[in-house]
Write a structure and sequence with these properties.
The complex is a heterotrimer of chains A (349), B (453) and C (531). Chain A has 349 residues and is mainly alpha-helical. Helix content of chain A is 74%, strand content 0%. With 453 residues, chain B is mostly helical. In chain B, helix 5 runs antiparallel to helix 12, helix 6 crosses helix 12 and helix 9 crosses helix 10. Chain B has a domain of 287 residues: ABC transporter involved in vitamin B12 uptake, BtuC. Classes of the chains: A mainly alpha (349), B mainly alpha (453), C alpha/beta (531). Chain B: This is Inner-membrane translocator.
């Protein structure tokens, strides 16, 4: 693939994005936004003008941050799991369970008068992360200790959460939808996405643990023979996927202020989009941030366009990211999956 | 001579038993049952736990010895689940079955309800779900056997259903409005569904074969696309006049697949199940007893060996996905022609449930029927749980997830089995076997297939 | 002084197999010790015990006079034992320095950052001390196999290894790289390191080692001083009897050209050209052998011929017809039998029984089908006959392929392919991992096929095998034939030179081509032969 973007040199950014593929994703995302701003400024009366007017409003930024939080954070989690050799297709389930738990805990604390408002939400956030970590841990044990097929076990995680969250919601609140607990500002989402991305990037690229994680996914025997336990590293990878996805799910629900459990729940496939996002970003946290922001802004844009009265059916606009994914997957880039991802590893004896 | 005979006989029996135990099919059935049992057990505790925290005025069940009261009766839930799925052939006692207060006296009363008939609406719902799951289960299974994870059966079903509804409605005026015309329309409708689903399935197949795009991702994406595009098409173009929901016009009554014995309100037709069974046996024969089926299986289990044996890998991938999509599409046809009578936006998750059915069946077509029946029972029973108990019927969703989780970990049951039967000779695998394929370890769920039998 | 390593009565049992049976082994500090034996003699298992990967069933490991019990390689590493495996334990997409320090990374900022500069410096320093020439920042996947091996050695040295175990270190190296490796051995022992290397090649052991221990069937047959032993004695120790490779010359002159390869160019999976313009002809009633160190393009050449790989240039003709657009299946149908290099990945479906494996490659053949239907009864009787004729044990066609030993798997494949009644047999490493009795049987069958007028293309890394069986012998190096020689007259030294990529002067060896009458003629190998 000859991408004209790869010829462009961007001094500072390139130091962080050694990978050509990743920088394409990032550059494309922010480049297209910049182009839109430029056209909008030059021709305020055109569709571009309308679009940029729609995009560069506070509402859009807030909406993009809110939508990107579950997608980007779950994608970061997915990177940790898959880099270590465990394909976690159950990210969707982790988002669902953390979204529900965060609201439930915040509600119960508030209802009982133990904590109120922001404090209850704060505790709820961590409760959501904890729930996600627990589910991820179970998934890890099933995959690593009991050698379950990772894809099937991941689907099971999704299905369990998809059943459990509405079930518990009905048990506690009499409806699959929870009552509201008040929502938190979008700034939290934006901040955590930024911090999460940097932490993930640093961990993977600059710590010994990150090296071990990558080795566990590429050539577990190499790691094993130097005396590092592959299963411990993989457990850590899976648990980290629980931490990140849990943060994403909690932010999603707390951003809205309630949990919606009908149909595919309020998560609505964001966990699957997250998988696409990290593949898109070639397992690089910064790439995942770029791709995730792109998807989130598309999603936010279509909502905004509706408000502006463009007669495009929302379902059709929603389809755009999915079509883009297929086109990119088929015709543009090839991501290199870690060699040992999906394989069980057994130490000798 | 005579002295050694008992020993020889014993050795024969032992080797026979060992062979028997080695048959992966038997293993799989045992694991499926163990998974089911374990799921019910875990579900039991979930009901118990949530029954403790839920609020109610009177306890539905009181735990013996401890005297703790629970809002939900876990025994009752599972009883209602299975009893309800069959339309309630068994008595239900108040305040709950297996209540210590009545247990010794009322046990002899266990028997069929007077006036119960198998041809009731609740059982029809169970059978209807079973029928539809046979198709989606087969759809996922055939792809699996070719080493492909088709998560896109749902989308293929949506497309097949839409095409069926549109084609039948459009062609209806061309045929006489009688039984003959109806049968012809049904045949055309099913064909349209197969074509629609097949084409939709061929897309990820071709993308996989010729552009190396991971089918798990593309099929997930195509599900979203199918759902959204079909919705918009019906909303903007094909919406029936005056319909309050987004739906196409109704398929004429005579072009719907109607029941023979079940009540017409039950949305189940025996003929549809028959089509399902024919597909099931046909798929089994195709996989196990034809050259093309052999090609497909070898591609799935060991792609390099398939290539060596002259199988065109790309073509086989496209073929398998097309066949898989066609089966999903037929599932959509049956849903339109048997259940709904039209295409409606609220399509159930039959495609996703097909994945669970196929996994439970070990991707063996013959296993699809019992697996589909189990999930049919869960579906039919869930409704009754909602009617007859306070337990949220979403419980069934949890059970479904648990079953899949446990089925996914055969090693767990093997370890337990080893602990229970420590003397069993350990099956040693030759050398450190190559983990030949890169399909995410799907070999673990692939059936070896016994053909020489 | 205590020996650096003393293995005392090591026995290692696996379910159903005794891999090591009461093995004693002592290695002096600063010496090179060769562990010699055939495949499956238990060499690797023994070394895995020393390296802590396996725990011995019985016996003990003594390092520097101190009994040790290793639960994991980490314990072995701490005791100064390092191992370089046959398949390198390197993370290919990572840099050399990352691989060297893997698991022992120097860190700074309270462990929050790998100290890259320190790591790089350490690698550079070690590399300089032992005269290795490696760039710490290169990615492992980009460097040659020889360099990768040094990275492995660096890894062990970085961890403070005093005792280095190398498992078949020369298997993947070119002769020049092998020489370099011997120099490395010298450098290391000069600085007090102890080296144990595993090999199944006599010449290597006598060349590089101070002492040699021979293992056979898991037992120590004897430890000898390299200076006191002849190759013949060692060979006898290895196989337990005298090895005689009898040549059976073709009685009939070869017939028409069956396979004609012209200027074939092929790439490997990574897109690197590994076959660069190979031409060869194989005639009826002739065995054409290809010798060479593994990984010099033989695999890609063979795959291009059998239809598993699309060549980037050149032609392959079969019975005079260009095979360019002919699928693998069509090639099988036209009479091309193929014993693949990797029997467990390609030649057999491991989870299927032998009946199902018997039709692998002929699943569309009329012999086993009625229309679309596969007739499993016919497949079963075919499996039965292959099992009987080729002495596959246990003779159970309902057992899965994975339950058979490597040798029996190979016999089944060989039988299945030979019984296709092919015009051309492409046999790659047909006796790899097969016991001696079966090897002889397979050799006899190959010779028989030749007498029946079949064309045979034989690839083997066993020199004696290709030499004994071939009528003409090509030596492949770096994607090219460095020579096509008469196996009856060529010497081992000459073959060694050819395998190393040298060409021979015309008067030192008889180059053979095939004349118009089909008889071997003494012409230059690379000369075009007009048919």
């Amino acid at each position: 693939m000859r991408n004209p973007l790869s010829a462009v040199e961007i001094p500072v950014v390139d130091r962080f994005l050694g990978d050509g593929y990743v920088r394409n994703v990032v550059v494309m995302t922010f480049g297209s936004l910049a182009l839109l701003a430029l056209f909008g400024a030059l021709f305020p009366e055109s569709v571009a003008g309308d679009l940029s007017g729609a995009v560069f409003t506070g509402g859009m930024v807030a909406a993009t941050a809110r939508i990107s939080a579950p997608i980007v954070l779950a994608a970061l989690g997915g990177i940790f799991a898959e880099k270590s050799g465990v394909i976690n297709i159950g990210l969707e389930g982790l988002l669902i369970i953390s979204a529900f738990t965060s609201i439930y805990v915040a509600y119960v604390l508030g209802d009982a008068g133990i904590l109120t408002g922001g404090n209850a939400q704060f505790v709820g956030f961590f409760a959501g992360v904890l729930a996600s970590v627990l589910l991820a841990f179970v998934f890890g044990v099933v995959c690593i200790e009991y050698k379950a097929d990772q894809i099937i076990a991941g689907l099971a995680v999704w299905l369990i959460a998809l059943g459990l969250a509405p079930f518990l919601s009905t048990v506690f609140f009499g409806s699959v939808n929870t009552p509201g607990v008040g929502n938190i500002g979008w700034q939290y989402s934006a901040a955590l996405v930024a911090v999460g991305t940097v932490v993930a990037w640093w961990t993977l690229d600059h710590t010994a643990f990150g090296t071990h994680l990558k080795a566990a996914g590429e050539n577990p025997r190499a790691l094993d023979t130097v005396g590092v336990s592959v299963s411990k590293i993989r457990h850590a990878g899976v648990i980290l996927s629980g931490v990140f996805a849990g943060a994403g799910g909690s932010l999603l629900a707390l951003g809205v202020g309630r949990f919606g459990g009908s149909g595919e729940t309020m998560v609505q496939g964001k966990g699957f989009i997250a998988i696409v996002v990290y593949l898109f970003g070639n397992y690089n946290p910064l790439g995942a941030l770029g791709a995730g922001t792109l998807f989130a802004s598309l999603d936010a844009l279509q909502t905004r366009l509706q408000q502006l009265g463009y007669g495009i059916p929302s379902s059709l606009v929603e389809t755009i990211p999915y079509v883009v994914v297929i086109i990119v997957l088929a015709f543009v880039g090839r991501t290199r999956i870690p060699s040992a991802a999906g394989d069980h590893y057994e130490t000798e004896e | 001579m005579s002295r050694s005979r008992p020993g020889a006989v014993r050795a024969r029996i032992e080797s026979l038993l060992r062979r028997f135990a080695g048959i992966s099919g038997i293993d799989r059935v045992l694991i499926a049952f163990a998974a089911l049992g374990l799921s019910v057990l875990v579900g039991f505790f979930i009901v118990l736990g949530s029954g403790r925290v839920a609020e109610c005025s009177t306890a539905a069940w009181t735990m013996p010895i401890t005297g703790l009261g629970f809002c939900y009766d876990p025994f009752e839930v599972f009883f209602v689940l299975f009893n309800g799925a069959l339309g309630g052939p068994f008595y239900v006692w108040e305040p709950g079955i297996l209540n210590p207060e009545w247990l010794p006296i009322t046990l002899p009363w266990l028997g069929f309800m007077p006036g119960w008939s198998p041809f009731n609406n609740a059982f029809a719902l169970t059978m209807s779900e079973t029928t539809l799951l046979v198709f989606t289960g087969l759809s996922v299974a055939v792809a699996f056997r070719a080493g492909l994870f088709n998560i896109g059966t749902q989308g293929q079903l949506v497309v097949g259903a839409l095409l069926t509804a549109l084609v039948v409605v459009a062609l209806a005026p061309l045929f006489p409005a009688n039984r003959v015309g109806g049968v012809i329309l049904i045949a055309i409708g099913v064909l349209a569904g197969a074509v629609g689903g097949g084409l939709w399935g061929a897309i990820p197949g071709a993308l996989k074969a010729y552009a190396d795009a991971n089918e798990v991702i593309t099929t997930i994406m195509l599900n979203f696309i199918a759902a959204n595009v079909a919705y918009v098409l019906v909303l903007e173009v094909f919406r029936a006049e005056g319909s309050s929901v987004v739906a196409t016009a109704d398929v004429p009554e005579y072009a719907q697949i109607g029941p023979w014995l079940f009540p017409p309100t039950g949305d189940f037709a025996e003929a549809a199940l028959l089509i399902g069974l024919v597909s099931l046996v046909g798929l089994y024969l195709f996989l196990e007893h034809t050259s093309l089926g052999y090609d497909l299986r070898v591609s799935g289990i060991q792609p390099l060996a398939a290539e060596y044996s002259g199988v065109n890998a790309k073509l086989t991938t496209v073929r398998a996905m097309t066949l898989s999509g066609a089966l999903g599409g037929i599932g959509g046809s049956i849903w339109v022609l048997m259940s709904e009578g039209r295409w409606v936006e609220s399509i159930p998750d039959l495609g996703f449930d097909g994945i669970t059915v196929s996994i439970l069946a070990g991707n063996n077509p013959l296993g699809v029927l019992p697996a589909a029946a189990l999930f049919g029972v869960l579906k039919g029973g869930a409704l009754q749980v909602g009617f007859q108990t306070d337990v949220p019927p979403e419980l069934v969703g949890v059970l479904r997830g648990l079953i899949i989780l446990f089925v996914a970990m055969p090693e767990f049951f093997r370890l337990i089995g080893k602990r229970l039967v420590p003397d069993e000779p350990e099956a040693t695998r030759g050398g450190d076997g190559k983990d030949g394929d890169g399909v995410g370890g799907t070999a673990a769920v692939d059936d070896g297939g016994e053909a020489s039998a | 002084m205590n020996p650096a390593v003393h293995l005392d009565g090591i026995t290692k049992r696996f379910p159903g197999v005794v891999a090591n049976d009461d093995v004693d082994l002592a290695v002096e500090r600063g010496s090179v010790h060769a562990l010699l034996g055939e495949n499956g003699a238990g060499k690797t298992t023994l070394m895995n015990v020393l390296y802590g990967l396996y725990r011995p069933t019985e016996g003990r490991v003594v390092i520097d006079g101190e009994p040790r019990s290793f639960d994991s390689p980490r314990d072995a590493i701490n005791a100064g034992v390092g191992m370089i495996h046959q398949h390198f334990m390197l993370v290919e997409p990572m840099r050399i320095w990352e691989n060297v320090v893997l698991g022992n990374e120097p860190t700074e900022w309270y462990g929050l950052r790998v100290d890259e500069d320190a790591a790089r410096e350490a690698v550079r320093e070690l590399s300089a001390r032992y005269g290795f020439d490696v760039d710490p920042d290169a990615r492992v996947e980009d460097v040659s196999v020889g360099v990768q091996q040094r990275v492995e050695i660096l890894k062990a040295l970085y961890r403070g290894a005093d005792i280095l175990i190398l498992d078949e270190p020369t298997a993947v190296l070119t002769p020049q790289e092998v020489e370099d490796l011997y120099d490395v051995f010298e450098e290391l022992t000069d600085q007090g390191k102890t080296i144990i290397f595993i090999s199944h090649k006599l010449s290597e052991a006598t060349h590089a080692a101070d002492e040699i221990t021979v293992l056979r069937n898991g037992k120590n047959v004897g430890t000898v001083d390299t200076d006191d032993v002849t190759s013949e004695q060692l060979a006898e120790m290895m196989v337990g009897r005298e090895v005689l490779m009898e040549r059976s010359a073709a009685t009939e002159p070869p017939g028409d050209v069956v396979l004609d390869v012209e200027g074939l160019v092929a790439e490997d999976d990574r897109g690197v050209e590994v076959v660069s313009g190979v031409s060869a002809q194989v005639r009826e009633g002739e065995v054409f052998g290809i010798a060479g160190v593994d990984g010099n393009g033989q695999s890609q050449l063979i795959e291009s011929i059998t239809g598993l790989r699309t060549p980037t240039a050149g032609t392959v003709s079969f019975h005079g017809e260009d095979l360019d657009d002919v699928s693998r299946r069509e090639r099988i149908d036209r009479g091309m039998a193929y014993i693949p290099e990797d029997r467990q990945a390609r030649g057999l479906v491991m989870e299927y029984d032998l009946t199902q494996n018997a039709v692998l490659g002929s699943q569309h053949d009329d012999e086993f089908t009625d229309g679309p239907r596969l007739d499993w009864d016919r497949a079963a009787s075919h499996a039965e006959s292959v099992i009987k004729q080729y002495d596959v044990r246990p003779p159970d066609r309902d057992a899965t392929a994975e339950s058979f030993s490597g040798g029996n798997q190979q016999k089944f494949i060989v039988g299945r392919e030979f019984e296709r009644d092919p015009d051309l047999v492409v046999a790659t490493h047909p006796t790899r991992g097969v016991d001696i009795g079966s090897t002889e049987f397979i050799h006899d069958r190959l010779t028989e096929l030749r007498s029946e007028g079949k064309a045979v293309l034989l690839v083997s890394s066993k020199l004696d095998e290709v030499q004994a069986l071939s009528d003409r012998l090509a030596v492949m190096h770096d994607g090219e034939f460095t020579g096509v020689v008469d196996p009856t007259t060529v010497t081992e030294e000459q073959l060694g030179l050819l395998m190393a990529g040298e060409t021979l002067d015309d008067d030192t060896v008889d180059h053979v081509g095939v004349g118009d009458d089909g008889r071997p003629t003494e012409t230059a190998a690379d000369e075009e032969v007009s048919a």
